[in-house]
Amino acid sequence: MLDYPALMALATVIRLGSFEAAAQALGVTQSAVSQRIKTLEERMGTALVIRGQPCRGTEAGARLAHHAEDVQLLEQRTLGDLGAPTPMAPARIAVNADSLATWFPGAMAACPHLLFDLEIDDQEHSADWLRRGEVAAAVSAHPGAVRGCDSTALGALRYIATASPAYIERWLASGVTTESLGRAPAITYSSKDRLQLIWSEMATGTAVTAPSHMIGSSQGFVEMALAGIGWGMNPEPLIRDHLARGDLVPLLPDLALDVALYWQVSRLMAEALAPLSRAVLQQARAVLVAP
Asked: Which of 9, 69, 119, 180 is the most buried (most CB within 10 A)?
């Protein structure tokens, strides 16, 4: 049997980043937290925490911490079914930045019993967190269910290639062509972000590699476009008001890119996360484009 008080100490240290913070959260002394983890490390025969600022889990430590958090979720569900008081439990979820900037917080707000620990990753890669067993659920662009998980279609997040009027006049006054896009600076979220490339191929028949600014922020993406620094694929819900005011304009008004999203949940955690799954579906259907 695993020592669950020790596992909870480990998970709390990794989640909060320090032994001191973990001790305060657990209501025990710092030495008690240290002793629990030391005993667990001796039993497992390997280091579980990389001491530092902040503390991080080793591969084995992170896996055990995730298991402990899953157990908390399952216990919370059982206590709730029995009518007993239910403490808040952590939920590790992988979600893409644009969903977090538009519709996902509404689902989070509907689940005040959860403490969210979000892993932000591109929608094309968020399912990888599930494959590695590092999260309990993910918002993903992949329709096929990860092994051991169930997948539910949410709808599509609509993206519009947008820029400021001044940017259009400077860089794309002659129209959207392979040549003009090849010169015009774009905005890219990260090296994983292929949306600008996909849209350029839709627009011109050629996947155009443009000079690009790297901005790892959904709101920063919008601000860069407003400032005339580049063009980029912005989620329509995030820029609706800017489009209405004319602060941003579509590069091609009739060419949007709809990215289908799916809610993937570990079957082991499906019952414990059922309230969140319901909230995710409700919020997605209110904001996303119907498939």
From this structure: 9
When pLDDT is averaged across residues 93-99 and rounded to a whole number, the result is 96
- The residue with greater pLDDT, 65 or 288, is 288
Any idea what the CATH number is for the domain that residue 56 is in? 1.10.10.10
What integer is the mean pLDDT of 100-110? 97
Position 85 pLDDT exceeds 70: no
Domain limits at 236? 157-259
| Structural contact between residues 187 and 221, judged by C-beta atoms closer than 8 angstroms | yes
SS3 55: coil
Could you tell me the pTM of the whole model? 0.82
Assess if residue 171 is contained within a domain. Answer: yes
123 within domain boundaries: no
Is 264 within a domain?
no
Number of domains within the chain? 2
Instruction: For residue 215, give the DSSP letter.
Output: -
In angstroms, the CA 123 to CA 102 distance is 14
Count of residues for the chain? 291
What DSSP state is assigned to residue 83?
A: T
Element (H, E) at 49: strand 49-50
Which CATH number covers residue 198?
Answer: 3.40.190.10
Q: Nearest Cα to 229, choosing from 180, 169, 185?
A: 185
- pLDDT tens for each residue of 201-214: 999 999 998 899 99
CA dihedral 146, 44, 39, 9 (to 10 degrees): -10
